[in-house]
User: Fold this.
Amino acid sequence: MEKSTVETKILADALTPRQIVEELDKYIIGQFEAKRSVAIALRNRARRQMLADDMQDEVSPKNIIMIGSTGVGKTEIARRLARLVDAPFIKVEASKYTEIGYVGRDVESMIRDLTELSISRVKAEQTASVEEKALGLAEERLLDCLFPMPRSLKNQRNQETPDDLDIDDDLDIDNDLDIDDDLDIDDDDIPFPFDLVDTADEQSEALEKQRERHLKTREKLRQQLKDGKFEDKDVEINMKSRSMPFVEIFSPGGIEEMDINFKDMFSNILPNQTKKRRVNVSEARQILMQEEAEKLIDMDTVISEAIERVENSGIVFLDEIDKIAGRESRQGPDVSREGVQRDILPIIEGSTVTTKYGAVRTHHILFIAAGAFHVSNPSDLIPELQGRFPIRVELKSLNKSDFQSILTEPKNALVKQYTALLQTEGIEADITEDAIDEIAALAFQVNESVEDIGARRLHTIMEKLFENLFFDAPDLEEKSVTVDADYVRGELAEIVKDQDLSRYIL
Assistant:
């Protein structure tokens, strides 16, 4: 396929900005500006791949800072984005990183984690592509367990096979099945002793007949195995032992800073160990299929493709960036703030991170930062870091109308969730429109008077509202319940009025 054709296909397969916003609208109410900025940034990833190679290196990702109080949808946008785009994605908390030399994780670990996720994803895709072939190989091994080859035929095959090719070493033959009764096999199919045969020609002819009978019986078993007649039969298989020797690493960053893959090193030094395990055929098929799939997958190709995806399509959502905002000139030396910013800076502007799978370049990874910025401002970040986030979007606080929409419109709306939970007890709950209005009004009121935690306030109110109903649900004789405005006020009015009490409960 020509390059231009590949480039056109990349852009055709990518979602348009409008489509991305429409998908996010199914789960997130409002915040159109934030959705729009994220959609444009994602579309630009596909546009960049259509440029000439020399131009691709010059186009840097347009990193985004989302500014807004907690509960307005910053994290939800990132979480839904991860499911929407076919790209390596990781969400990290900026507050868990510390400056190099101090207790905590170093900032490069976010790229290592992103690489691990990408490799797991590519490996899963490769496994799915070879699943059919792996299933066929697993069934062959199962047949060897259910109906082993007669010793006479095995000895003859060993004589015809080179000494360095051990065919059946990985199979533990355990044929405890009653061939006549359980497998519906004719008596003529049973291998017969050939020590009564005198001449070499007769022996050869007998062996050939025995081989034909064995293959015929094996095909009958194969069909019955596919028909699921042996699913509950127990077989004994040899599994690869996954136990590794214990190694303690005495270094500040642990094993992630060491450019040695100890797991692979010990697997090459120590012999492959197996352990016997008795399982039913259904479970054995899955175990053997997984082993065969791992043999069919080329891990070098997996690693190469995974790193390429990280470098060109990776997305890092850096949450709570406001927690590390601060400068020494204003607040004094603080290694957990400005120190972390200076360590994150090279990762965002583009550097090479060493992982156990190889070097990963971060020049074209998209960083989306988010923070409430209640006690600090984006301008409190060091100037170098501010310059690496050219797009800034402010998310609006939620009002009563937004709360009403959140309760009913999204696919995972809270009203739908609580109704479904009650249906598991056989109770049909009717949550009326005036009840939804009352819940939204109470959520907005408590946010205004206590603390604005956005849509998360709805969770606390809904839990308190349905607390008694959930407790009594298994014992209720009346299987139909109506939740209206009076019911809501009766359950929550006193708590909302008592400001001190609402601080603790709502």
In short: The chain has three domains: 3-123+309-394, 131-296, 400-505. The CA atoms of residues 434 and 485 lie 5 Å apart. Residues 200-226 form the longest helix (27 residues). Residues 131-296 form one domain.
